[in-house]
Design brief:
Blueprint (H helix, E strand, L loop, with lengths): L7 H30 L8 H10 L2 E5 L5 E4 L1 H7 L3 H4 L15 H13 L3 E6 L9 E12 L2 E11 L1 H23 L5 E5 L5 E6 L2 H6 L15 H14 L8 E7 L7 E7 L2
Antiparallel strand pairs: 1-2, 1-5, 3-4, 4-5, 6-7, 8-9
């Protein structure tokens, strides 16, 4: 078998280059480990970080420009990135995948520029938590020595809350689609413990039938015929009585400005 002879000097140079490259990489890893263990950006907050590590998915710090200066090891493991890969990343594109909406990017820019607390949600970057969501709460913090302003962020898993919100939004969408097909008006409201009521929803038919927009639903009560008004409020109070709630039924008249007399019938159940 033929062999290739490499001059000793060339072989030594190659070996030294490999060793130098390994040393550079080891120095980077050592610096990252040291920074993660004793972050100078946290100043006198080691106890705070120790407590937060177990409560939150991640703890991070940024400059006032939103550039990442430190993140704990738990979040590094979650997103599959080491600290050297994350340092200097902008908060608006922390993982380089551009998943934040324009509204969230504007919110971040406003919070950083105004040195005020803010929060935003983003899809969980971990493939093990696909479909999950994280919430990052940013709080400005001024260190006295050395004097500087930085932001401390707490990363929280809000997947369950987000799924509930999305499910509610989908339910509301289906409800609205159904409400638009109903010939009458669908109306939802809530009675508060102090006796006041809050409208929650009124279908678009409200304007077509009564000349009142859903946003102005409270004005409809003003149009109840004076001779029907006492009877109307008595029926509402009876239906919402905490000791003996009954389904609500009412039939009466409305005096809508610019329209002929309107007869209407209402039904509701708690």
């Amino acid at each position: 078998m033929a062999s290739r002879n490499i001059p000793l000097g060339v072989a030594c140079r190659h070996a030294l280059r490999r060793r130098d490259a390994e040393l550079v990489q080891l120095r980077r890893q050592l610096a990252a480990a040291h920074l993660a263990a004793t972050s100078p950006h946290l100043g006198d907050l080691p106890n705070f970080v120790a407590q937060m590590q177990g409560l939150f998915v991640g703890v991070l710090t940024t400059t006032t420009r939103g550039e990442l200066t430190w993140v704990n090891s738990r979040f590094q493991a979650r997103c599959g990135r080491r600290l050297p890969e994350l340092l200097g990343r902008p908060l608006a594109d922390l993982l380089g995948n551009g998943v934040l909406s324009g509204a969230n990017q504007a919110l971040i820019a406003e919070g950083l520029a105004g040195s005020i607390a803010f929060q935003f949600d983003l899809p969980d970057p971990s493939p093990h938590y696909a479909g999950g969501w994280l919430r990052i709460r940013m709080q400005p913090l001024r260190r006295p020595d050395p004097a500087e302003l930085l932001f401390v962020g707490l990363v929280e898993d809000v997947s369950a809350e987000k799924r509930a919100q999305l499910a509610l939004a989908e339910s509301e969408r289906r409800y609205r689609e159904l409400a638009e097909q109903v010939p009458g008006v669908l109306y939802r409201w809530r009675k508060n413990p102090d006796g006041t009521s809050v409208p929650l929803y009124a279908s678009p038919k409200m304007r077509e039938l009564f000349g009142v927009t859903p946003a102005d639903i409270n004005s409809l009560y003003q149009y109840v015929h004076p001779d029907d008004r006492d009877r109307y409020f008595e029926s509402v109070n009876a239906a919402t009585a905490p000791d003996n709630p009954v389904p609500w039924h009412f039939e009466g008249r409305l005096l809508v400005p610019g329209r002929p007399l309107v007869w209407w019938r209402g039904h509701a159940a708690l």
